[in-house]
Amino acid sequence: MERGKMAEAESLETAAEHERILREIESTDTACIGPTLRSVYDGEEHGRFMEKLETRIRNHDREIEKMCNFHYQGFVDSITELLKVRGEAQKLKNQVTDTNRKLQHEGKELVIAMEELKQCRLQQRNISATVDKLMLCLPVLEMYSKLRDQMKTKRHYPALKTLEHLEHTYLPQVSHYRFCKVMVDNIPKLREEIKDVSMSDLKDFLESIRKHSDKIGETAMKQAQQQRNLDNIVLQQPRIGSKRKSKKDTYIIFDTEIESTSPKSEQDSGILDVEDEEDDEEGARETFENYYRKQRRKQARLVLQPPSNMHETLDGYRKYFNQIVGFFVVEDHILHTTQGLVNRAYIDELWEMALSKTIAALRTHSSYCSDPNLVLDLKNLIVLFADTLQVYGFPVNQLFDMLLEIRDQYSETLLKKWAGIFRNILDSDNYSPIPVTSEEVYKKVVGQFPFQDIELEKQPFPKKFPFSEFVPKVYNQIKEFIYACLKFSEDLHLSSTEVDDMIRKSTNLLLTRTLSNSLQNVIKRKNIGLTELVQIIINTTHLEKSCKYLEEFITNITNVLPETVHTTKLYGTTTFKDARHAAEEEIYTNLNQKIDQFLQLADYDWMTGDLDNKASDYLVDLIAFLRSTFAVFTHLPGKVAQTACMSACKHLATSLMQLLLEAEVRQLTLGALQQFNLDVRECEQFARSGPVPGFQEDTLQLAFIDLRQLLDLFIQWDWSTYLADYGQPNCKYLRVNPVTALTLLEKMKDTSRKNNMFAQFRKNERDKQKLIDTVAKQLRGLISSHHS
């Protein structure tokens, strides 16, 4: 039963699949039917599929037959109707042919009449055209006759104008007539003749202005300089009026130069009129414009090419500027006295090119200048150059922008110069207070440097200033630097605020970079002594106090109050503080190096059992050196002297501890430890004596507290107290580290074993060794518990 059901299900699936394949064959192109048929033969029921396919074909054949039977009668009716229409079409064709033949016959007379009307109108149009052409020819003949008369009378410039009208206005209208050929053939000859004469005059003119450009420029710049000086003297007149006057005067000079070089035959209109008249003739104008502008561009390139050694002297720059000014004065004069030869667009383009090349040349050559005086003179010359050209309407803002760049270079050259000045001042200073023996000398120093000290004023002569000579010298050189910066800002059309900002920024560079580096170099010298370092600290302290006077000095010369918004502050205080701190650090380092040198002389006998009852010689000498050194620190600020003293004591204590614990000391005796204790007591005595005032009681002794507690522990052998109180805040031996104690104890234990090798059977020695082992074990326990 179940098997039958399964067979029936499979049969249904096969039938459905065959039905799908048949639909796909019916709806798919013939080219794509191969995969479908392959799927049939891949199966096992292709026989049954063939039966279904034959059945499907028979069904389609029956449907086709039914459709053909249904439409057959309509097809027969359509053929019958078509045969009936054929006769009617033939009748219509015959009627159209007859109608066309009648129309052609009846319209023949009308066509003949239209041809006659066409000929009449053509004749009328030809007569009108002939009259118009004759009217065009009459002005041409009149203009040509006028041109011939002008050429005979050698009036070339009116002839050019006539030639222009004739060639461009009249002849193009009648050029196809043969009688115009003679005119056309003669016009090029006439034009060439006029061009040759005019071109010769133009070349002479170009050569003349080339030769005289530098003189014209020199005269223009002199006029601008004289007018500027006059403006500064007389009531500060408006700058515009002075510029106009200078321009007029320069034109007079220019016209004089032209008159001396112009051809005498051109007295009716002058050489510039030649160019002006040429502008009226289109072809000649283009030729003359192109030639003139091409030659002037060549001259401009030669003028704008600076000599290779221009940066060596100011005269080189002056000659360069004279040529440029003369060139553009001529161009401006031609622009305002002629029409068409040059225009504003051409001059602006030429000026833009010249301005960029000039600025590039100045940037390159000014970068070679290492003398600030030459840079300053160059700046004044550039300002005069810009003012002169501004008179003639040329924009010169880029030149003033470039001057701001040169200002930065000027500042750098000043900084280099003052670096050498500061170096010489610091190298030549004796780093000793300035002695004064009279009131005159005292006032001279006070006049150079703002210093007030009532107590010093009350002292009788001779007396000493606290600072050395480099203080007033450096202060005055800073003021000289400020004056030098101010000179550059003149005539740059800057506001007072901008000048003040420029001076302050440059001064800050001088202080923070140049002077700071000079001071640092002096401080870092290998051979500098403590006395010099102390004097440097005193000097920088007084220079720091003088910074407010420098602020006032800048305010007085710029008239800009320090309270003004965005006013740059001087960084002199920071500079001198940094130098002072560097000197202080150098003092601390120097002191520590001296202490190390004394400690190298230490020669302890760690195995001795004898006690000298006095401190070691090297330590006595070291203490004496420290006392004499700190006596020099009386003029230093209190904190500096105290810090130096505390630093020296801490370094001494640390070095002594390292000396006691160093690995080379493998064994030591109690006697050696007691001798070391005497040296530490000497250090403590030095600390209690107050070598530098200002310390609170026992503060300086705290530097040796680690050594003191360690030595007391071993000398008194107070291990029970140490071990019992360890970790308590009020412990007697709070500063003793168990690791340090264990290290020192191991050295004493090794000594005890070595010296008592044959006495180990004595009860006291055995007990002592046993005690050392017990203490060492407990110390290791403390160390391990602390780490855990």
From TrEMBL:
Exocyst complex component EXOC6/Sec15 N-terminal domain: which residues? Answer: 52-221
The UniProt regions of compositional bias labelled Acidic residues, in chain numbering, are: 273-283
Q: Name one GO cellular component term.
A: exocyst
Q: Where is the Exocyst complex subunit EXOC6/Sec15 C-terminal domain?
A: 398-747
Recite the UniProt keywords alphabetically: Coiled coil, Exocytosis, Transport
Q: Name one GO biological process term.
A: Golgi to plasma membrane transport
InterPro entries assigned: EXOC6/Sec15 (IPR007225), EXOC6/Sec15_C (IPR046361), EXOC6/Sec15_C_dom1 (IPR042045), EXOC6_Sec15_N (IPR048359), EXOC6PINT-1/Sec15/Tip20_C_dom2 (IPR042044)
- Segments forming a coiled coil: 82-109
Asked if the Swiss-Prot or TrEMBL record annotates the protein with the keyword Coiled coil, the reply is yes
Q: What segment(s) does the record annotate as region Disordered?
A: 259-285
Q: Which domain of life is it from?
A: Eukaryota
What's this chain's function? Component of the exocyst complex involved in the docking of exocytic vesicles with fusion sites on the plasma membrane.
PANTHER family per record: EXOCYST COMPLEX COMPONENT 6B (PTHR12702:SF3), SEC15 (PTHR12702)
Family, per the entry?
A: Belongs to the SEC15 family.
Name of this chain's protein: Exocyst complex component
Per the UniProt record, the source organism is Aotus nancymaae (Ma's night monkey)
User: What lineage does the source organism belong to?
Assistant: Eukaryota, Metazoa, Chordata, Craniata, Vertebrata
